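WARN  no MSA supplied for this record, continuing single-sequence
INFO  ligand: zinc ion
INFO  echoing inputs
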Amino acid sequence: MPSVSQSDRPLLIFESEVDLIVREVSHWPHLETGGDLFGYWTQSGAAVVCLAIGPGAGARHHATSFYQDARYLEREGLRLNDRFGLQHVGEWHSHHTLDLPHPSGGDARTVRDALARYRFERFALVICTLSLSRQAAVEEVSLQGYLFEAQRRDSYLTSPWVVLPERSPMRDRPTAAAGSRPLPRVRFGTGRCTMNDLRGGPPERRALETLGERWFTTPAGQRRLGDELAAFERAGLTAKALVSPSGDLHVAVLDDRAAARYLLPTDYPTTAPTVRWAGAEEGAVLTRTIAELGVSWDRDTLLCELHASLVDRNATEARVEGSDPAVSDRGADDRPSRQDGVEVEGHS
Ligand SMILES: [Zn+2]
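INFO  complex generated
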């Protein structure tokens, strides 16, 4: 299984070509579609996508596969090469609602075969995913950029995006006729930076270059992260998994009762998370290990369950501090003493 690491080589693309891809992806909300990317490579090995093409009339679209119209690809490739000197720098396809923002094993094999067959040094792969509204309209299209290199046999890189804010000078006509449907929201799932960021140094996310193989990039880790987020969703809580510039994964949870951030270590779930907690005490942000909170860790525990137990403890702590109005209405005799609270917290 390839490992994923962050590239300091972004994927540059004209805004008009992003529009073309997003429009095509949202046209097929339940089937794969795709196309190819034409442009050139910079000195530092970043792809500049000048023109994106769609699937062609003879393409075959299935739920979990897509076959480009090969004659269309060849014809367009020759035309763009003759006219502008552009080269085939990559391809894009949609995983629509498959919940797979990464290249599949088959995708990675296909690209590697192509690198070998055509003796390419590198090739860009864009994976698109989408989300649907309750009315089944395409609400958001997310674009993920990946870079495969001939010398890097067992891994590929993720590329942040640079969107060049123009219609591609090589595109004769706008990508859509006036009055056509508005585009859904676009998300750049592998990050976004500007040319200015590149001139001023590496992109913001460069620290992720050292990401290497982390628990959440493995298939088992991906499943675990999916389970974690699904459990929060079932509990009616908003949880977001965020990768920090240092490459650590956080899960941020927004709850009416407390805002918590769980830092998941590199060998999660073997090692327990650390908790940053902005709870009942106003303005106080606490960072605690699970052990410090008096909770033992079991690798089968989901964060959502841990979160629920910490919220319960926090409610107890609030009663101890006497800051919970529901509690202060109660008779003094019913109130747990400060000392009881300390025992509950495991701080004694
Ligand atoms: Zn795929």
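Confidence is low (pLDDT under 50) at residues 1-6, 203-212, 318-348.
INFO  checksum written, moving to next record
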